[in-house]
Amino acid sequence: MVAAPSVSYSITVRLVVPAGGAGVSQLTHAVEGAGGLVTALDVSASGADSLQIDVTCAARDTTHADDIVAALDSVDGVDVHKVSDRTFLMHLGGTIEMASKHPIRNRDELSMVYTPGVARVCLAIARNPDDARRLTIKRNSVAVVTDGSAVLGLGNLGPAAALPVMEGKAALFKRFAGIDAWPLCLDTQDVDEIVRTVQVLAPGFAGINLEDISAPRCFTIEARLRELLDIPVFHDDQHGTAIVVLAALTNALRVVGKELAQVRIVMSGAGAAGTAVVRLLVEAGAKDVVVADVDGVIHAERAGLDPSLRWIAEHTNAASFTGSLKEAVRGADVFIGVSAPDLLNGDDIAAMETDAVVFALANPDPEVDPAVARQHAAVVATGRSDYPNQINNVLAFPGVFRGLLDAAASTIESPLLVAAAHAIASSVSDTELNANYVIPSVFHEDVHKAVAAAVKDAASGRGR
Fold first, then answer.
1. Residues β-bridged to residue 437
2. DSSP of 375-387, one letter per residue?
3. Is 9 part of the annotated catalytic residue set?
4. pLDDT category of residue 2 using cuts at 50, 70 and 90
5. 447-459 vs 414-426: helix crossing angle, rounded to 10
6. Domains of the chain, first to last
7. For residues 365 and 369, what is the distance between their CA atoms, to the nearest angstrom?
């Protein structure tokens, strides 16, 4: 399967071509002939004999971008002057910054923002520590914490290489929920050190978002921090994914007219995301779930189960099925993959129940080719932006934390996650709902507010 050109690999090529010739018209043909997509063509300078043209185009990857540049350079009369990677340009100097909420234009303003006036605020908080939420940024602050051990799908890249992802996360917190989030990339992968570091940093924050920490360490870190801290701890790779999967599945089952408690669900993947998904599905009312990982279907008699896999074995696979993933998926109503590419094919999907739902979420290469899956399943979702029904965590975490912060919550429980999923699902109206639209866009004007309201009510004990 050849990926489509993506703005993630968008380049701008500065060219000089002869004025009045056919070079300009040939530029688009050259890009398209190389499999690229022209998104803009601008004349940035003009002279009597030549034109300077900036061609912006999308490629599949960096190698493909080089091919596009070579194709442009091969056009008669064209001289390539400069190539800019637009994604790298966006990250020059970072993607976020700190800004003061108040101007500091004179001595009076300085004395209130800082010394001596700030001393009065310090003493007020010392007398009543709860005032820190009212009188500091704490009330609206989230720490985005990583050790760089599981960066996106790229692996153990370390804390420095993880920083661009954490910056992006902070930018999304601000854009979709107005939350001030701060990247904290820790130069240790020792569980005890991570727990202790977050514990001593916690007084400055109202919530902790754990990000890109490898399994099974992430489970231990989250559990210990939840015991130690009086603010909510949320692992987005687990809980954010689980919320959006449950939301999409809720609407996919609406499309095919089935109920969560009645369908047979087969899952591939029991890492951080898979474990959280199965736990939330069970919490939401799923009764018949079978989970497979790299070592096969998980069942109570399988040897070598760690505590996380043991929980799965005890709460799923009531029939003690011991076959392969391909065998398990036969006759299933739902397949959810959070694992690895190309585990299933069209024949496997065709062997599922009528009006099957397939969520193939491995990224960038799914467990089954989405185009093939769509030939047999009623609803298909992926983790990719170039297919309908993208399962995107951005639908969850901004609104979840907005609700937690507004409720001054100290913990985060499973019913709250279910409430968030239902809020996302409900953002798709009956008139909008169809097989290609079971989950709203992250730019849906109401979804983040709906999630925040549902979470706030659940955290405050007002949820249904």
1. 434
2. TT-SEEEES-TTS
3. no
4. low
5. 150
6. 6-91 (3.30.70.260), 143-231 (3.40.50.10380), 237-464 (3.40.50.720)
7. 8
Is the predicted pLDDT of residue 247 greater than 70, yes or no? yes
* The amino acid at 143: A
Q: How far apart are CA 140 and CA 411, in angstroms?
A: 16
Q: State the CB neighbour count (10 A cutoff) for residue 342.
A: 13
Q: Which of 138, 169, 258, 456 is catalytic?
A: 169
Q: Band the pLDDT of 24: cuts 50, 70, 90.
A: low
Angle among Cα 113, 118, 120 to the nearest 5 degrees reads 145
Tokens of 370: 């989405």
Residue with tokens 């003009």: 46
* pLDDT at res. 19: 76
Alpha-carbon span 88 to 106, nearest angstrom: 39
Give CA–CA dist 404/278, Å, rounded.
23
Q: Which helix (H) or strand (E) holds 297?
A: strand 296-297
pTM for the model stands at 0.88
Reduced to 3 states (helix: H, G, I; strand: E, B; else coil), residue 349 is helix
Whose CA is closest to 12, among 31, 33, 34, 35?
31
Calpha distance 432→279 (Å, rounded): 29
Q: Burial of 15 by CB count in 10 Å (0-12 exposed, 13-18 middle, 19+ buried)?
A: buried
What three-state secondary structure class fits 270? coil
For range 345-372, the mean pLDDT: 94
Q: Is 80 helix (H, G, I), strand (E, B) or coil?
A: strand
Name the 3-class secondary structure at 100.
coil
Q: What is the pLDDT of residues 119-150, one digit of tens each?
A: 999 999 999 999 999 999 999 999 999 999 99
What SS3 state is found at 264?
strand
pLDDT at residue 22 tops 70: no
Does 114 qualify as catalytic in the annotation?
Answer: yes
